[in-house]
Every structure is written in structure tokens, then in C-alpha cells.
Amino acid sequence: MPYEGEFANKTAHVDILNNPDIKTMLEECTYLKPPSDEEAQHLAEQFVDPPEMDQDDIPDFVIAIDGSNYEVSIDEKLPSTKFGFIKVGVILIRLDEFGALKVGKFVDPFKVAALKKKNTALTFFIPSANIKLHGQDNVRDSFRRLLDQQLYNERTRFNADDPRTSLRSTLFMLASLRPGTMGTGDDEKLKIHKCPNCGEGPITVEDVPEQQYCPHCRKEVYPSDCLRLWEEVNDFQSNQTAITRLMMILEHILPAHYIRYFLKESPLLLTNMAFFVDGPLAVFGNAAWLHRSLMIFLENAKRKLSRFNAKPIMMIGLQKSGQVVDYINYVDRFLPKNKIYCIDDEFRYKYMLGGRDPAGKTFGFETYYGQDFIYKTDSGKTFNLLIPYPFSSKDMDGIDFNEEKTKIGNYENLPRALALISHLESDLYKNAVVPIALAHRYTAISFEPGGKVLDLFSKKSLGRENNG
Ligand SMILES: [Zn+2]
Fold it and tell me: What is the mean pLDDT of residues 98-125?
């Protein structure tokens, strides 16, 4: 993302802003404007003391997930023939005594460099403009088939011999949880809203290796059609939108993939780790329904862990850009240190969203599964973080979601999350990419599903294994 030099040509930028036609039209638009001192002061007054933090409660492990994507031409002489690829790095960072690289003051720069370059990230190949898979008629169908294959691939499995540990099975689990008629209540079945070929639907498919077909037109259907990414894929133009969407979906279903596995194999490990997700806890676009499944999934996991008297799973979305961050940049000097603000809709719509009216029942009704907080640490670093909503649904009888979501006391994990952020603040603050930021100071291990994940937690490797 171009943080600096976004307007490489400053003169051109000024020229455009001074153009009378542009000026007139801008005057007719609402957008985020620099807040007045009074407004900033008003925000500062909303800040409260953070819940009491327990530094001993900081988890020993952080799992950080970070995706990147590219769309490239196959050859410079064929600029309109493109493919895309997505890399999603999953890094396990150890904050325990073996993890901190505090022998002297020296951090091994080679280890950090190795982590940056590492090719072990989960990589997804995406056919884009003018590229078709053999046997497929168009880019869209090639995209669908290849996506499904890759979600099912051994590389996404925790156990190569067991397809039920694949990322595709995690998608089945999430889709089965959908509320209403699209849910199946059976994690081996999911519904696709309509057949991409004939448009009939919904169609139920099963978590089996065999190719499945539409019962109406007999053409191929794939479980991952439920993400509806194919609707945004076209034959002759860039498919950057679909590629970016897929990357963001992966960033949100991968935590669920790990959590599902740990819940089955070693649930108590979950109480000693935190998941860092890049950006808001929200899913946008045609697959936004996932946010509802994630709410239900996280609540179910919480209930399961509470049976062991264990704390809920800690998940933190860290935002480094976007409207809230832009707003913070304007008002930061007014904000009090060691205080927190749980953003409510009233403030958000009145100030941050340039006076827009609430479109739905609550901010992010169709997309968000977590709540925005602004937290300013003791040393004056301000963070925009998100914590999953403490409810399985935004439509619960007898619960005023709008009100409950802004009660700090409802977020059981917030004290631990703040303790963790404070502990890592200087690393998290300066670097936009969480895994790389933490890899500078702590032992970081590449942590793809295929890599014998549980072994990394065994006594022996905890004592000795220390490189990526
Ligand atoms: Zn059909």
C-alpha cells in the first residue's frame, strides 16, 4: 500500500484540487474533514480507564496471519493475459522465555530476512484475464475449479492423509453454521445459493473428494462456489477485485482453520495463544455471510473452552489504515494516555463517516464480527484494534446489540488483549505488517497447516527449536 508518495506528483494534485469544476463538485460531497478542536476534545472525553491488565496473562504464543496478492501479466508482450497469486503467511511467534531474542542486544538479521523471503507461505494460483484451464470453457470456470482444488489440497491440511483437515472442510464447517435456510447444521454439507451455470438453487453439496454436479443442469459445482467469488470473475479483464477478495477471505478463515484443529486435538493450547488478523474483523463482498458464521463459531469455541474452565480464544484485528486510523491521525494529540474508547455508532456516524446516516441496524451489520476500539498506551502510542463481538448474533432476543457492543465489560478478553498490545507496542507501532514486526524481536516459526503444527508445541521443540 502506498503510504508515502501516494501523490507522487504534488503539483498535479494541487492543480486538480484547484480546478473550479472539481471544487464545485467536492463542495457537494461529504467526506472526512479535519475535526475541530472541540470535536477532538469531545472524543477525548469519551475515553475511559482501560480494564485492569494482568501482565502475567500474556499468552506465550502469537499466531499472525498476513496475506499479499499480485496480478501479473504472463509476458510483457502479452499484457492482457494475466494470472494472479495470493500468498498467506502464517507465523507462530514465541513470546515465552525462549522466544525473546534478548541475548545481548543483537537480533539475528538473517533470520528476519529469511522469514521475509520464505516461500513456505500458502500460495494460491488464480487464473485471470485470458487464461483458461485445460478442459474449461472460460476463465470463470477455471477460477472455480482451481480455487476448490487448492482449498482441498494437502498443503492446507493438518494431516495430509485426512482431507477432513483441509481448508475446504473448514469452509464446510463455517458454511454449515449459517443462520437461516442457507445453514445445514451438518459440517459435511453446505449450500451454494445458485448454480453458476443454470442459476437454479440453492444446491447442497457434500464434503467428499468426488466431483459433484448440479442436479438441474448436470454441470460441475464446487463447494467453494458458496463464496460467490465467481460472480466477480470475468474473461477478458483484470480480476484484481476477486483476487483481493479471496485473499481477505483467506485471512479470516485461516484463524478458524487453526482453531477448529486445536479444539479437536489440544483445546487448552488455545488459551495460551493470540491470533492477530490484519485489518478489521469483517468480511466484505459476496462472502460477507462468513462474518455471521465466524461469530457463531467463536461463541461455540468459547463455550467449549469454558467447559475446561479456560479463557476464550484471543483474537485481535489490528488496523493500520482506514477511516478510523485517518481520524485518529487528526485528533491524536488530544487523546489521553492509558485510556480506551469503544467506538459507538453515534460518534462514528457523526464524525468519522463524514455525517452519513446509519445505513442499517448497527454499523457493519452485514460485515463485521468484531468491535472497534481506540487504545492509547501509557507511552502515548495509539492503536485501532478490534475484538470479536461477545455474542453469536446481532439479532438476539432481549439484547440491544447496539448498546451491548459498546460495553467494555462485555469483552472478557480485552484486558489480556491490551496487556499483549502494550507488551508489543513498539514493535507493532512502527511496522505495518505484524508478523514481520514481531519477527524482529522474537523467535518466529513458519506455521503452515502441513508443517506438523502440534510438534512445534512439544516440550523438546519448545526448548530447542528456535529458527524459522
Ligand atoms: Zn445448474
Answer: 60
